[in-house]
Structure to design on (411 residues):
């Protein structure tokens, strides 16, 4: 039984810091009202979509369900503040996640090729070296640590810094911006920044990088974005900066939350830990199960362009919809024993990366990073033991564990 109205629970950042509560809420919705008209205090209303097949149906139809103008769930008060900060707009600049056709195809197309599995092989040795560095730091920590903060989180941030060609000395600055961007209402993660301040901080950081890439292009993705020309002219500076923000933001905590959440899930299911240790060939499947299990991206929003019938409900043109990926990933009609963590789950057609034309641009990079990470981690550790209470970030958007205190028994 949930003690808060379901409509208020859905946008409440605190819900996502309490996994039992989050999953109970979504299980109730999938059972009772999977296409749920939601009118929370302080938010404009929206439909909450919790069934896997419904989320897919919406994601597939980019012409009927638009990313603009409401791509994320913000309180009315915050939307007002954002409009003030941006001169009346819903956001600072357009990232590809906020674009519809034809722009989405054009601008996603700029970096799409760079993120394809074969193209990524080019940076595999560098990603491997960053994972190796993280393992060295891990071993140097002794036997007790906060695995999320000390190990899982820094590694994907460095991978992002690598692909954007940043100076590694800037790690604390970028980490602070990313934490602020995705902090939800978690004061510990925000460090006093909200998404507005974090975006301004990102812009201040990325502006000189974009200019430098135009002067001295290399083969990193930052150079490709900065030097693309459409109809003979460089693309708009705002779009270049938002592209960098999207990569820096989307690529960091998603991946760190997944590896920390995966380690916790294996601590709670020791037979899965043993299975993976005994057979490293299972790493690929294990990573997919970790992404399904953690679902670090909690939602994206769409806006209906036309009236649309879904499970007997009429979604009106102009209504917004919240796509609940963690719920789709526990859908009993799709996954056998969805609440069981099984590293060799097969098939595992999870929607942790979303679906359709907006499907995660960085998914092959995330997979590569996570597979390399676990291939190196597993031989080092006999087992992990939890030494305190794991804590999750209070955020309804992107995040997962923020503290994972562990004791390591080394091999
Ligand atoms: C485990 C790690 C990750 C997860 C679970 C994840 C999940 C997601 C999800 C659910 C979406 C929305 C898809 C949709 O609307 O259908 C998305 C979009 C996106 N992701 Fe990821 N992501 C991860 C890692 C990354 C990385 C490493 C990068 C880049 C370095 C990245 C860049 C992006 C971008 C740019 C988009 C917007 C794509 C578009 O709208 O066309 N993500 N991701």
């Amino acid at each position: 039984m949930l003690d808060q109205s379901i409509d208020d629970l859905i946008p409440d950042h605190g819900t996502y810091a309490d996994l039992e509560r989050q999953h109970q809420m979504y299980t109730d919705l999938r059972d009772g009202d999977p296409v749920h008209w939601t009118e929370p205090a302080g938010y404009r209303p929206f439909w909450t979509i919790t069934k896997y097949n419904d989320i897919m149906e919406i994601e597939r139809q980019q012409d009927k369900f638009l990313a603009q103008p409401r791509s994320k769930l913000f309180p009315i008060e915050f939307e007002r503040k954002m409009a003030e900060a941006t001169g009346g707009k819903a956001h600072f600049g357009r990232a590809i996640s906020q674009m519809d056709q034809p722009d989405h195809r054009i601008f996603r197309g700029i970096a799409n090729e760079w993120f394809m599995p074969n193209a990524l092989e080019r940076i595999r040795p560098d990603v491997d070296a960053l994972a190796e560095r993280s393992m060295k730091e891990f071993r140097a920590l002794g036997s007790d640590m906060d695995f999320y903060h000390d190990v899982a989180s820094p590694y994907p941030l460095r991978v992002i810094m690598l692909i954007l060609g940043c100076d590694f000395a800037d790690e604390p600055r970028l980490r602070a911006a990313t934490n602020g961007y995705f902090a939800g209402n978690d004061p510990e993660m925000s460090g006093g920044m909200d998404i507005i301040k974090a975006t301004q901080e990102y812009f201040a950081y990325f502006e000189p990088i974009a200019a430098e890439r135009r002067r001295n292009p290399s083969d990193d993705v930052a150079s490709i974005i900065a030097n693309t020309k459409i109809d003979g002219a460089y693309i708009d500076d705002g779009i270049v900066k938002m592209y960098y923000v999207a990569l820096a933001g989307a690529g960091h905590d998603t991946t760190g939350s997944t590896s920390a959440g995966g380690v916790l899930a294996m601590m709670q299911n020791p037979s899965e830990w043993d299975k993976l240790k005994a057979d490293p060939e299972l790493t690929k499947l294990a990573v997919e199960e970790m992404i399904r299990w953690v679902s670090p991206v909690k939602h994206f929003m769409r806006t209906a362009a036309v009236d649309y019938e879904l499970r007997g409900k009429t979604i009106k043109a102009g209504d917004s919809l919240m796509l609940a990926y963690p719920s789709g990933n526990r859908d009993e009609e799709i996954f056998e024993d969805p609440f069981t963590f099984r590293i060799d789950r097969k098939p595992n057609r999870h929607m942790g990366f979303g679906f359709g034309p907006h499907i995660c641009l960085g998914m092959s990079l995330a997979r590569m990073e996570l597979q390399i990470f676990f291939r190196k981690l597993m031989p080092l550790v006999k087992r992990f033991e939890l030494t305190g209470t794991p804590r999750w970030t209070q955020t309804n958007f992107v995040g997962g564990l923020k503290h994972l205190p562990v004791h390591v028994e080394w091999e």
In short: The chain has one domain: 43-392.
